Amino acid sequence: MDNQPFKDKKRSREYSLLINISVAAILLGMVVFVLIHGRMDPARTTETQDADSDTTRHATDERAEALRQKYIDRMKLYESETRAEIEQLHLSLWSPGSITELQEQEKKAIESFGENQFDAALTQLDELLEKVSGLQSIHREKFMAALENAQQAFTEGHSEQASSAINDALRYRPENRDAQQLKKRIDSMETVARLIREAEIARVENNLGKEIELLDEAIRHDPHRTELVQRHNRLTAKHRQQLFDNRLQQAYRALDSKDIKQARQNLLQLERMNGGHPSLARLSDKIKQLEKELSYQNLMAGARAAEQEDNWQQAESLYQQAKMIFPDRKGLSEHLQRASKINQYTRIMEQSLQRPQRLADSRIAASIEQIIQESAEQAEHSIRLQQMTTRLKNTIAEMSKPVAVTVHSDGYTHISVSGIGVIGKVTEYKLKEGLKPGRYLFKGERRGFRDKLVEVHIKPEQPVDIRVICDEAV
Questions:
Q1: Which strands form 464-467's sheet, in the order they lie side by side?
Q2: 151-161: per-residue pLDDT in tens?
Q3: Between the chain's N and C termini, which has fewer beta carbons within 10 Å?
Q4: Are residues 8 and 148 in the same domain?
Q5: Which domain holds residue 432?
Q6: Does residue 228 share a domain with residue 143?
Q7: What are the backbone dihedrals phi and psi of residue 137, each rounded to the nearest 5 degrees, phi first?
Q8: What angle separates helix 42-77 from helix 4-37, to the nearest 10 degrees?
Q9: Taking a C-beta distance cutoff of 8 angstroms, is the pair 212, 235 a contact?
């Protein structure tokens, strides 16, 4: 609290003393003057006395006004500041009698001021301020003492003493945040102590998760227990590491079991726990390698199954996919090469069987027979290829046997066979060696008539009669 009112009171008293001394000095001078000069002139003496009286009244009025103004200034300060400070003392909680005393003292000062007793009013107001200052000192000392006692009792674990002391401190300063915070901690002392005991039991039982749970609950009750927070943090880090290690082991066990899905799930959980851990890169590589291996094995199994079903196109496709995964895997190239050759021979034979008439050409037939010989090794692995080889051989044999062909005409038409030769003008002509199965174009020519073209499809073992006559005049 500001001590200015007390300094002003001291200066007021000094000022009053100086005025009294001055008046006494003036009176003493007048006495000396009379003794020295004898009897004074009555008229002059009266004038002098009147003048002195006026001076004295003027000085008294000035002093009264000064005291009046000083009271007013201090009362304004009291009303604007000191009353608010009194409210903050919460006297009703620890010294209700002081409220009455202060009110009575304030009333005295106001009454004296109302009676123009400014000196008495100012003195009474100063006494009021001194009482307030004294109460403030007591308030501060008692609060600090109660708070220190509460803190000490709390530190020593004496809950009842701590509770009593903190309640005492709050009587002085109910709004004080430090005291309120300490009360919360004191109120939770027994609960926190119980949780700590249970946490110690969990520690002995090596139940790390339970111990962390109990410490976490204790910290929620008293967040300022730094030793608990530090231990909780250490155990949490240790527990996280244990969980991480266990999850990592599960992931590797899943890999050993070739359970890609489980390994992937474990990896995702590990990344959430500690995404930057170096072991995760190694685990990810191993999972990818296993995925490749399993994919390769599935492709190879599918290709072998396709071989068993004589589906060499699918087998070749699966072998090619497997080769993209492991290009240098032993034995893969041989499997792929076999499938590729079987499919190649199969396509050639299919095309030949779709156009059997081409096999009537000895050069084409010879080429196909060469291919049949080359495919013999691969045909051992493909029933379909074997069947096609047999069909193709039979077709070549059929297409190589001539078929009887008889040409009928009118004896005037000149007949020739494209690519074979000339028959001439005949009425009936039987080709001596016949013609091999296939498509042939017979042409008839006669002067004055349009040419006659007859296309004939000769089939194996089916004799053919052909009529070629130019009968359309030009």
A1: 428-430, 405-408, 464-467
A2: 898 888 888 89
A3: C
A4: yes
A5: 405-467
A6: no
A7: -65, -45
A8: 180
A9: yes
d(CA 436, CA 356): 12
Does 238 map to a domain?
Answer: yes
Tokens of 245: 């290690």
The structure's pTM equals 0.49
Summarised one tens digit per residue, pLDDT across range 283-310 is 999 999 999 999 999 999 999 999 999 9
Q: Is the Cα dihedral 56, 59, 63, 64 positive or negative?
A: positive
| Token code pair at residue 419 | 């690519």
* Dihedral sign, Cα of residue 129, residue 134, residue 139, residue 144: positive
Among residues 220, 245, 276, the one where a domain terminates is 276
- Residue where the block lists tokens 């009362």: 75
Give a yes or no: residue 281 inside a domain. Answer: no
> Please, where are the H alpha helices in 309-359?
312-325, 332-354
**One domain for residues 396 and 416:** no
Residues 387, 415: one domain?
no
CA dihedral (313, 315, 318, 320) positive or negative: negative
CA distance 65 to 53: 18
Residues 6+ apart with CB under 8 A from 422: 414, 415, 416
248 and 206 within one domain: yes
Give me the residue label for tokens 């069947």: 387
Decide if 95 is inside a domain.
Answer: yes
